[in-house]
Amino acid sequence: MAPAPPPNAPLLTLRRTAKSFGGVRALRGVDFDLQAGEVHALLGENGAGKSTLIKLITGAHQPDAGEIAVAGRTLDGLTPALAQQLGIACIYQQPALFPDLTVAENIGLRLEPAGAWRRIDWRARSARAADLLRRVGATIAPETEVRALSMPEQQLVEIACAVGAGARIVIMDEPTASLTSREQDRLFAVVRELRADGVGVIYISHRLEEIFTLADRVTVLRDGESVGTLAVRDITEAGLIKLMVVREVAQLYPPAESAPAGNVLTLRGVGCIAAGLTDISFEVRAGEVFGLAGLVGAGRTELARVLFGLTPADAGEILLGGQRIAPQAPPEAVALGIAYVPEDRRRHGIVLEMPIAHNMSMAVHPRLFPGGWLRRGAETELALGFIRDLAVKCAGPEAPGGSLSGGNQQKVSLARWLATKPRLLILDEPTQGVDVGAKSEIHRIIRRLAREGLAVIMISSDLPEVLGMSDRIGVMRGGTLTAVLPGHSDPHTVMAAALGQTA
Amino acid sequence: MNRYFREISVTVALVLVLLALAVVAPAFFQAQPLLSLVTREAPTLVVACGMALIVISRQIDISVGAQFSVCGICGGLLAARGWPLTLVVPASAGLGALLGACNGLLIAGLRLPSIVVTLATMVMLRQGLNLVQQGAFVNLPDRVQWFGLSQAAGQGTLVGVALLLLVLFGLAMRRVAAGRWVYAVGTDAEAARLAGIRPQLVTFLVFVLMGALTGLAATMNIVQSPQVQPLAGSGLELKVIAAVVVGGVAISGGRGNVWGAFAGLLLLACVSPALIHLHIEAYWEKAIQGAIILLAVVADGVRQRQTPGGRG
Predict the structure, then answer these.
(1) Does B6 contact A at CB distance below 8 Å?
(2) Cβ of B168: how many Cβ atoms within 10 Å?
(3) Vertex A210 angle, CA A207 and A214, to 5°
(4) From the CA of B306, how many Å to the nearest CA of chain A?
(5) What's the rounded Cα separation, in Å, for the pair B100 and B202?
C-alpha cells in the first residue's frame, strides 16, 4: 500500500503545474493548496487559466509539468475516475444531470455501483436521495423529474451527489451566476456546512463581495500563473483587482489616428427580455473603434445579436444614422448597413466545406447576383479583391474554408461582411484563437477600417486588446452597460467596472 | 482528394457495369428493351432530382411514394373525366406542390423533424387513398397513353422531359443563387441565417418543389399504361433516397448534386436487367442493390473521417 500520508498534509497541493494546448500556454506554473475545512477562492479574469486548473484537478487533462498531490500523495496520471475515488467533486455552472430522469435516479446513477445487470432497490435509492437532499437543505422530492427543477435546485442535487460520494474536495465553478440573492444565501449556508464538516471547497467567482463573505483564502491567477495567495481578511477589494490585472498594456497596437466624426449608432435605454439586457445607452461614431469589455456572460454577444436583429429589442430605441431602426431579422440589419462577424467562426462564421469565394459572397447575394443568377466572374473578382486586400493566405478562391488557418478563416469571415459595405461593423472576439502574427494583422485591418470611416464595435475578452485598440470602451456587467471609459484607460478601472466595484 | 470523387466513382462504376454487360450480354443493348428500361426510370429520375435537393438541405422526405400514388390517381381520375393532358399535368403538379407545402409548413414552420412529419403524411396519404379508392384501378381513355402518340415517340418525350429537368436542376444548383442557399442551409443553417439567408423559407420551398416534381412525375407514369394503379408509388421513396445516397449526396446535408443522383439511379436500375441477361436468379437484385448502398455509405463515412475540418 501507499505510505501513510504525513499528518496535517493539505487536502490538495499543486506545485509549478503547467499545461499547454497546441502553442497556447494555458497554465505557466501554478502553485495552489487547499486545506481541510477551508473555502479557497480562485480569482482571475477571462482566460487567466481557471478552467484549465479545474480540469487538471478533476483529471480531465494531465499537466505537462509540475505535480498534483492529494492528501500528501503525489499522483501521476490523474484520471476522472481516480479523482472521483479520491473524493474530488466538481459542481459546474451548468449542472450535468439527466433532465428526463428523477432526482433519485440521477443520484443513484452517480453513487450506486456500476453494473448492467444489478438489481435496483428503488426504496433504498429513494431513501438515500431524500437523506442527501435533506443534508444539503433542499426541499425537493426525490421522485421529481430534474427537468422540472430550477437551476439552483439542480445545483443542490449536484452538491447532494458530492456529499453522498463523501467528497473531501468540492470545486464550485461560478455557482451563483444564475441565482437570486435568497437562493445564494441558502447556497452559502450549504458551503459553510461543508466547511464545518472538514471539506475543502475551491470556490470560483467573479463577484468580489462573495469572496469576502465566504472565502477564507483567495488565490489570484493571471495569464496562467498564480500571482498570490492571501488570507481574505488581509486584503481589500482594490488590492485584489490590482493583482488580477496585467500591469502594462503592450505597445503592439496600431495607433488610433482617425478622428471620429458624427454618430452612426445611438442606443437609448435599449433592453431585451429574451436576451437578458436592460437599459443600455451609448453611441458609436464613424471612424471609431468602440470596445466592449466585460466578463463572459455580461451580455456583450447578446447585445450584438439584438443590434443584428437576431433577438429583437423590446425596449428603448436604436438609431442608425439618425434614423430609428428596429431590425427584426438579419437580412433587415444587413440592408440597413449593419454587419456582424460572429464569435466562434468555426461554427457560424464560415462554412468550412464551402470554397472561400462562396463564403465571401454569402451575405451579398442580392447585390452581386441581380435576378438570382450566379455570376462566377463577379464572385471570383470579389474574392480575389479581398484575398489581396486582407492578405488571406490560401491556395485560391476555390480552396475550401476548412483548409485555412484560424487567422485566415477570420479574415474570410470579415471579408464576407465587408462585402456588404456596412456602416456599422460588429466584431465578436475577432482574434480569439488566432496566432500572434495574424492577431496583429487583424488589428491593423480593424484600425484601417475605422480610418476609412466605419463605425466599429469590438467585443473582446482580451483586456489588453480592448485597451489597446479602442477609442472608447464600454464596460458591460449583468446585462447592462455600467461605464463608458476613454481608450487606453487604466486596466484596473476597466476591470473594476466589469466586476462592479468602484476601485 | 477530388471534390467530385464520389460522383466520378459512381459514374466509373456505372461505365464498368455497362462495359461488362457489353462483353458478356450484348443483348442488353438492344434499342427497344433499353428504351423501355429508361422510360420506366424517367419519372423516378424526376423525383430523384427533388430528393437530391431535399437531402442536400439536410432533410428527408419519405412521403414521396404516397404523394406519387395520390397524384397519379387524381390525375388519372381527371383524365378519365375528359380533362386534356395539358390541364391534368399542371393539376397533378399543383396537387403535389400543395402536399409538399403541408410537409414544408410543418417542418420549416414548426421546426419538426422531417422524418417524423413525412412518415405521418406518408401513412395518412396512403391510407386515405386506400379508403377512397379501395384498391381499384382507374381506366384511362385511349388518347392518354403515350400522349396519343406512337409508343416510341411517347417514350422519347418522357425521357426527354426527364433529362431536360435533370439538366435544368444541375445547372440551377450551380448557377442560381437559390441553389447556393440550399447548400448553405444544409451545411450550416445558423451560419446561413447569420449571412442573411432565411433557412426556414429555403426549407419550405424545397419541400414545395419536391411535391411539384412528384406530381409531375406521377403524370409521367400514368401515360405509360392504360390504367393507373393506386400502388404505383409504393417503395418509390426508398428507391430515390437510395439513388441519391449512392450518387454521393451526403445524408448529413450540404454535399452532392443531381448528376450524382442520376448516375446512382442508373447504377441501381441496371442491376435487375443485368441479372436477367447474366441468367442469375432475380432474388439477388435487392441484395446487390443493398450492397451498393452500403458501399456508398461506407465510402462517405471513410471520406468524412479523412477530411480535416469537416463535420465529424
Answers:
(1) no
(2) 12
(3) 150
(4) 13
(5) 13
